[in-house]
Write a structure and sequence with these properties.
Layout (H helix, E strand, L loop, with lengths): L16 E7 L4 E7 L6 H9 L1 H7 L5 H13 L3 E8 L2 E9 L16 E8 L8 H14 L6 E4 L6 H10 L2 E8 L2 E9 H15 L1
Parallel strand pairs: 5-6
Antiparallel strand pairs: 1-2, 2-3, 3-4, 4-5, 6-8, 7-8
Helix pairs in contact: 1-3, 4-5
Length: 206
């Protein structure tokens, strides 16, 4: 009987953290660092092969293609790829980008102060109760940039679970748009809406 291939692992490199917070409800540290070319490629390649990721990312490519893709993200001044962790376990990928210079900018009403993000949770066991906490951490991380007024995204309209999560986080569906590779929902999270929602939840929990 053929044994499954071992899952890829990475060195956390906590000294490279770009953002970190303690999630009290889970008693876990949620944090991220920038992706490292070469070192993180096997893990990203592993995640891209998994059915729950490949269905919507459509990047179940050979590992050398993933390596080239990651290098392009790291070399592009308008994009930054991050690896997200729960404690020392890598769980997801976040690709932050300037939507004005992206394909999204040609299909949606992008405004000054907009910041785009592609997000995936690669480890299936973190798709449940961790999803909301991880989503909030990503949004807080992006809004730490004082110039950012809105976070925008363009998930596949078929990705109902992700769209429901975004709505819970404070995103609103602006419209549906046709991108070269998919029918997408143009999702927008206003800084004021996110902060108001976060404040309301803090009052409810206190």
């Amino acid at each position: 009987m053929t044994q499954p291939a071992p899952r890829a692992t990475v060195n956390p490199h906590p000294e490279l953290a770009a953002y970190s917070e303690h999630e009290a409800a889970l008693n876990r540290r949620l944090w991220c660092r920038q992706m490292l070319a070469g070192e993180d490629v096997p893990l990203l390649h592993d995640w891209m092969q998994r059915p729950h990721v490949s269905e919507f990312w459509e990047m179940a490519w050979p590992q050398d293609w993933i390596a080239d893709y990651l290098v392009r993200q790291l070399e592009d001044p308008a994009r930054t790829p991050y690896l997200g962790f729960v404690d020392d376990t890598p769980v997801g990928y976040v690709e932050v980008y300037d939507p004005a210079g992206d394909v999204l900018g040609a299909h949606a009403p992008i405004l000054p102060g907009d910041l785009g993000a592609h997000v995936l949770i690669g480890e299936e066991e973190y798709l449940g109760r961790y999803s909301v906490a991880l989503g909030r951490a990503v949004v807080r991380f992006l809004f730490k940039r004082p110039e950012v007024r809105r976070i925008v995204g363009e998930p596949d309209v078929r990705n109902h679970n992700f769209l429901s999560l975004l709505a819970f986080l404070g995103f609103k569906k602006h419209s549906e748009i046709d991108l070269p590779d998919k029918r997408a929902a143009f999702m927008v999270c206003e800084r004021a809406d996110f902060e108001r929602l976060a404040s309301r939840r803090r009052r409810t929990l206190s």
